Each structure stands twice: as C-alpha cells, then as structure tokens.
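Marked as duplicate of an earlier ticket. Keeping the data here for the record.
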Amino acid sequence: MGLHMHLLRAHFFLVILLIFATKSVSIQTNFPIAKPNCTDRCGDVSIPFPFGTREGCYLSKTFLVTCNHTHYDPPKPFLRHSNIEITNISLDGQLTVLQFIAKECYNRNGTEALSIDPYIRFKEFTVNNTANKFTVVGCDTYAFVSGSRNNKSDYETGCTSQCASKDDLEDGSCSGVGCCHSSIPKGVWKVKLTLKSYSNFTESYDNDTTTVWDVDNCSYAFLAEESAFTFSPNSLSILRNVEELPMVVDWAIDRGTCEESQKNTSSYACKSTNSSCKGTDNGYRCYCSEGYEGNPYLIDGCKGIKQAPTFPTARKWCHQTILLCQRSIAFGISLGITVFILVVCWLYSMLNRRKLNTMKQKFFLQNGGLLLQEKLTQRQQSPVMAKIFTSAELKKATDNFHDSRIVGQGGYGTVYKGLLTDNRLVAIKKSKEVDPHQVEQFINEVIVLSQINHRNVVKLLGCCLETQVPLLVYEYIENGTLFEHIHSKTKARSLSWDMRLRVAAEAAGVLAYLHSAASPPIIHRDIKSTNILLDISFTAKVSDFGASRLVPLDQTQLSTIVQGTLGYLDPEYIQTNQLTQKSDVYSFGVVLVELLTGKKALSYDRPVEERSLANYFLLALERSCLFQVLDDNIICGGNSDELTSVAMLAKICLHVKGEDRPSMKEVAKELEGLRLAGKHSWNQTEPNEAESESLLSGKMNAFAIANGDGSSSTAIGYDNSRDHIILPMGGGR
C-alpha cells in the first residue's frame, strides 16, 4: 500500500513539472476529416474521407455512406444503399457495423416457432478475424458460420452448445455449456449463419426429447465483436429482445500494393505530403508520418505539432548572461526530471515484477502445481517423466507466442511451433479454458500421458502451470495431419492404399492400447483425421488429448456433457450423454470411411440425407455402390478384397448401438491382420483355429438383413425407428 501511494504522489508531481516545462508548446489537434463543402457527420457518427455521403465527397462508390434522415431522428448512416448500419468509422482501416442475430425458437411440442438465419456480404471489405468471434448460445444447439474468402475459397466453421438446466450455466464461461464460440479465417467477405437444434428440430420425437424447452426454447448465433458480448445465465432471455450486435469490418484502398498504386499518381489515395502507405491483404491504407496527425487521404490533411519560437539571441552581454542562467536552470530542471522519471520507472518495474511473480504463483497453485509436483516425486523411479516448464522458457521458444508460430487451431486451443534451448522442436498447446473443478483430473491426465511410451502417440514432454490456462508441450510432428493428406488433391495422389491401411492400423493400435492396456483406461473422445499426425516416414501419431477422459477401473461409461466434432460424434453418445469406449470406435469408423472415399466427414455439397459421411457411406453400401464412392486414387492400386473388407469393418464400427460395435482391440487386430496377410480372416472359406475368433465372423450376420434372394442389405445409420436415432445433420433452411 505504501509503495502505491509513493508512486501516485510521484506521478502527480511529474505531471505538474511536465506541464510547467511545456507550457509554451501548443499542439494543433483540430483538423478537417472530410473534403471541403462536404458533410463530416451523419447523426452521431463521423464520416471521414475517403467515405462520403454524396458524389464528389467520397473516393469511390465503395465508400459511399447513405445518411437516412427519413426514418431516423437523429439520422443514421448505412453502407452504400444497403441495410448495413454503420456505428463507427476509423481512419486506421476499420468500421463497425450492426449484424443481425440468428434465432430459432420452438413450441413445447417441438414445432418451430421462429427461424432467422441472417446473411451479410461486402464487395470490397472483409470481416476482421481477430476482433470478432462466432458465438452460439443455447441448451440444445449447433450452428455454423460459412461463406467465402478473398481467395475465392469457401469456409465453414461452427460449434455445439448444450445444457440440461440453468444450474449448469456459469458467468463468463463459453466452453460448450450453454455457450460456445469459434474463430473465423482471414479475408472473409461473405457470411451466412445457420442455426440448428438436436432434439426440437423433429416433431416426431417423443416428449422426453423436449425437456430442454423448460430451460429455454430458443437458440442464438451471431458473428460479433468479442468485447460486445459476455455470457451469463441471463443471456438466454436477454438475447430474445436483441436484434443486432456490432461487428468489426476492415477496409482498404483498391486491391493493389503501395508500389503499384504509387505509379498512378492521379488515383493514389495518400494525398497528404506528410503521409505514408502501408499494404494489407486487401489493398493498402494511408497513415500520417511520425510527428503528424490528421486525415492522410486529404491534401495537406496531416498536420504537425507547432513548436513555440526559440528565445531570441541577446545582443548585449547582460542578456547573454541572463540567457545562460535560464539555460542552466532549464538544464537543471531537465536533469532533475530525467532522474525522477528513471526512479519512477525503476519503482514501477519492481512493482510489476513483484505483481508478475505473484500472478505466476497464483496460477501455479490454481492449476494444480503442488499436486503435480507431489505426483512427480512419487514417480521418481519412472524413466519417463513430465517436465514442468516455466512461462519464460515457452515464451522464448515461441517468440512470445507470435502469430507466425501458430501451426494449428481447434475448439480446445491453439498450437504453436517452438524451439527449446536444447534445439528440440516442440508443439506447445495453449488451451482456451480450463474448468477449475477439473484440476485434479487434468493433473492425473498429464501424469498418465507423460508415461505413455507408444510409438504412435504424440509424446507429451511436459506442461507449464504459471499461466492463466496450462500450456502442454508435445514433440513436434513435421508432416502435417492425415486430413491434409486425404483432402488435398496433390497429397492424396501420393497417399497410396498401402499407406492408408498402415496409418489406419497404427491409429487403431493406439486406441486399443488406450482402451485396454493403459491404467486407468483412456477414452480419446475426439478421434478425427485432423488429430492423426504423420511424420516424415508417414507413421501415424495420434494427438490432441484435450477432450480425453480417464475411466475409473470400476466403470465402463461416463456421464458427460457432449463434446467432440460434428460428423465424427457418436449418435448414441449425443442422445444419452453416456461416454464409452465404443464412442471412439464410431469416430474411428468415420476416419476409415475418409480413408476409403477421400470425402470429408461433413459436407453441405451433398443432399440432406447424405451430408453426414457416415450416412452417405452406409447408403452407398445398401445400394451396392461401394466402388462408386471410393477414392479414385486407391481403386486402381488397391486390392479389391482389402477395400471391401475395410469397408465392412467401417460399417460395423458405425453401428448406431454401441454394444453392437466391435472393440478397438478387435478392430486393430483385423486391420493389422489384413495389412500383413493381404486379406481378412472372415473372407477365408476354411479359417484355421487361430483365426476362428475373427471379428466379423459373428458380427456381420447380426448386421445383415435378409432380402429373400440370399443377398443382404443394411439400414445402419439411417433407420427411422426409435431404436436407431440418428444425429440430425441436415443443413440450414
């Protein structure tokens, strides 16, 4: 407390001295922002050039602002002739607009009462991907934000939000319980919001599926400025009466670079003689040079600071003496101020250092540091140990977590590439949020994963607990994800069937190890092609255990909030909230289908009933069209018996009922046997004794539906009876 008071007094004294020392300096802060004879305001919003409200006042029609006096008092500005309302324009290259909220409400019987899926597009501007967040609010909800980017490619991302009662909701928490959020990529110029409900969407469900209606019967989704919304349990009712939220949009001049634009002096926008140009991904912007301020887009728009004239030279020796005394006094004051500032800075630095150390200690204890140290001490005899890194070590390794070091982003956090002082390349995962009630479980997970010595698991090297959210440090895998190699046309041609089969067998072996050999067993809970990495030799490395759960030895299932990735989620898990090892089996089945077909787990380019890859694949099997949906890159080079066998294995992994799916140990055995022997044991007419326990020998008959002519078909994945409830993957209306 005493140090704070001294600093405040010192700061006040310093301000008085600076005012006295600079009283002869006047700073010109008033400058024009619009062209002469052009209005510079619309209601409460400033309209700086290059924007303008009429012809001759704007740089081009891209920057036309319509000031609506007819329906609003005071008037409101809108972008060009659209209904996009502007609330702020910044000369730094940003403007704030109001974006509509997506809403969907249901009656108690499950019928739809309200549906709003807003859409917005810009011709020359882009949506800022750092200031805005895509947010979903609801207790039975999943939503997508999709559209186009500057490079003409489409994008799509989203998240899911669920809760069973209002007691589940927490202030400021947006991690999937009542609220979730996601980032968007750079260069987005077209935005479409699609909002859906899991249970209330279909009227044919029984009354048990609409219990969430008692919490709130509406869901919401919006792409808005992150600082404009903070989640609270009251958000579900507050958003009912909110129509729009602010969204930050980036603007720039033309589409060319500074160098290209400067060649055409007539169209070059940086008109002020004291301005400079800076390129962006979407054109260029103008800025006043250092020491100047104003509007760089106007001629002589950048104004400098006017200094008071220097003291005149004295003509007599007495005047010279007085001037010398004045300079001595000024020098003494300047020296005193300099020393004073240095002392204040030193005190401030000490205070900050003490505060930083206190915060580090707080986070260390909050994140279970003492518990981890205790468990590590108990395991000193283990050759494989998790290291506790300091925050300084990891900041140095990642250039203070610079954006250029980002190698991946997902629903659970951001992954950075780092270089430790011993020249080891590492991947550092920075989680978004950690439940304080799960600290002990998190620590146990670190201990268990640090001792997994499996060649096909990305090795956990240690963690850092001195930050607000723990940082996990893994070995760095250089060859990217399986997703990239499947869905990139160039890379997919190099991913032969033998390589795909080997990757599948290795990934299955990891899951079998986690389920059967690890103690306690581990359910991964987010198996997908983006979480299977490939090293230089195309060896599979399973990663991202951020959603994983440790299973007590006396239990076979866990009751949890549904988490995972749409397209890979086990439909039985979604309906019951009961997580089992068979949930990983279903997700792995989707990965097998990706390897076979080269298609994404979720695609809105296919018809509604085929948007889920699992449903699309099973429907193809029912229609006997397997080889029509296989990836062209493997049909010629792959063995048809092997392809058929893996397809049948994927089919039983995707069974709606978990009890009818095989275990991962059985799946791994089948894939390894196929990879080594060249065909599955279930295709042999006379299996030997060692192969008599083949996975499919007993299960395929259970899944077949006799057609009367000796053939069989299957309805797995899209049976409409209540015993086969399917994840509703339908798109937006």
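See parent ticket for discussion. The first strand starts at residue 41 and ends at 42.
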